[in-house]
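Review form for a predicted model. The reviewer records the input and the model, then writes brief findings.
Reviewer: anonymous (R2)
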Amino acid sequence: MHYTLHQLKIFVKVADLQSITKAAEDLHLTQPAISIQLKKLQEQFDLPLTEVIGRQLYVTDFGKEIAVRSRRILDEADGIKYTIDQHKGLLTGKIKISVVSTGKYVIPYFLKDFMDTYPGVEISIDVSNKNRVIKGLYQNESDFSLVSVVPDDLNVFTVELMDNQLNLVGNSEYKDRIKRPKDLEKVTLLFREKGSATRNAMEEYLESKKIKLNKSMEFVSNEAVKQAINAGLGVSIVPLIGLRTALEYEDFTLLPLPGLPIITRWNLIYNKGKSLTPAQLELIKYMEENKVQLAEKHFSWAK
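Model under review:
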C-alpha cells in the first residue's frame, strides 16, 4: 500500500464531517483536490470507504475502521514531531478540550496565559451539551473536559478550578412575586434540556423544597434561557458565571430564596488510563499552580 499522511488526514476529515464540501472548507482546499486524494486512497482498498445515497455521503463500516486507524497513525506522526521539538527544548502538541455550554464563559480565562507562554501548543475547544461532552471523553475523542458535576461512573482525575454558583433569576417583575419557595408554583419555570447539570441542580432544589411543577418550558442552551428570562416568560436557576453582562445591562434580577445559591465546582477532568503528552502534562501543571490566582483575577465578581 502507498497511501500518504495527507490522504489519511483528508479522509479522516471527510469521515468526521460526512461531507466533501465541508472538509474542503475546513482544510482550505478545493473540492476537486479532496476528491482526487480520496480516489487515490480508495484505490488502495478492495472495499469501499464511502458511499453516496441520494446526495448524502456516508462512511461504510469498513471506512469507519480505517478512519479509526488513520487517526492513530496521524497521532503517532504528530508524536514524532513533538518528540523532535521536545529534544530542541520546545513544547508543542495538540490538546482537545470539550466544554459544557456554560463552561465557555470559564475556559478561555484559564487558557489565555498558557497559550501565550507556549505558542507551539495547539488547543481546540468543542462546546456542547453535557451528554456529548462526557461521551467524547469516554470515547477518548477529547483529552480533557470541563464540567460542573463529575459523573460517578467515570474513572477520571479531577482538577478543581473554581466555584460554580447557581442562582434563581427572573426579570424585575418577579422581584415582588417570589418571596418564598412555594411562590415558584405560581410561575413558569424555565429548564435546560434533560441531562444538563444545571437542570439536575434545579430539579433537586425544587424536590428538596417540595415544589409542585405546574408550568414549565425547556430550552437547549443557557443563552435561550436568558432570552426567555429577559422576555419575562418565567424564572430559572442558572449559573451566575454567564450573567455578568445581563445583570449589568438587561432587566435581570437575582431572586434570593432559602437554599440558594447552589454551589458546585468547575472541574477539568481527564481519563486515568490516558497516556498524556508533554503538552497535556504541562497544562495540568499550569492549571494546578495558577487556578486560584486566575479565578480571583477574572471571577471575583461572581462570589
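Findings: The chain has three domains: 5-82, 91-162+265-302, 164-263.
Further findings: The CA atoms of residues 15 and 251 lie 45 Å apart.
Recommendation: see findings above.
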